[in-house]
Amino acid sequence: MNMLKINQKLLKLAVFTLSTFVILTCSGKVLASSPNGETENKSMLLTQASRQEWRICEQRGASWSEVKYFESKNYFANICRDGNGQLTLVAGAKSNPDELLELPVKADQGYLAVDGNKTFMIDNSSFSMAINGLVVKKEQLTYTGE
Fold first, then answer.
1. Residue 76 lies in a domain
2. CA–CA gap between residue 146 and residue 135 (Å, rounded)
3. Does any domain span residue 12?
4. Rounded distance between C-alpha atoms, residue 57 and residue 82, angstroms
5. Are the CB atoms for 72 and 140 separated by under 8 Å?
6. 76 within 8 A of 97, measured Cβ to Cβ
7. For residue 44, is it within any domain?
């Protein structure tokens, strides 16, 4: 008898949990969509607006131009060419875009920038940072632009 009551209570809890999940999931979809089905467009506009803020080579001056632009989940990086033809990495965290790293770049099979014992590498698939030759951070690229 005791076991039967426990099983009934567990079944009621399971049904309650499942129905709550279904209700919340449906509510989230309704709240996220608009009558015109513009959800994807709004998300895209937000991404593009942020991306435009992070593409900053031209903000450095009239003689600067963008060579390549990269994004990962947490970071953005610009490869810029200055008026003297020098390549420069201008990169930062998406969470703090005002704090930028700006270093001269060597281009070979990717882009390499060195700051003391730290080496920053960007290739066609990932960002990585090494300290004293040991890779301590690596993120896959999510967007590449020219």
1. yes
2. 27
3. no
4. 9
5. yes
6. yes
7. no
Q: Of 44, 98, 50, which Cα lies nearest the Cα of 90?
A: 98
pLDDT of residue 60: 83
**Average pLDDT score over residue span 84-109:** 90
Residue 62 domain-assigned?
yes
Q: What's the per-residue H, E or C state across 79-121?
A: EEECCCCCEEEEEEECCEEEEEEEEECEECCCEEEEECCEEEE
Q: What is the DSSP string of 17-85?
A: HHHHHHHHHHHHHHHH--TT--HHHHHHHHHHHHHHHH--TGGG-TT-EEEEEEEESSEEEEEEE-TTS
Q: What pLDDT is stored for residue 1 in this prediction?
A: 56
Domain coverage including residue 130 = 57-145
| CA 17/CA 30 separation, integer angstroms | 20
The tally of CA atoms less than 13 A away on the side-chain side of residue 49 is 6
Work out how many domains the chain is built from and give that number. Answer: 1
128: helix, strand or coil: strand
pTM, two decimal places: 0.64
* Structure confidence by residue, pLDDT tens digits, 47-96: 555 777 888 888 888 899 999 999 999 999 999 999 899 999 999 998 88
Query: Is the pLDDT higher at 53 or at 41?
Result: 53
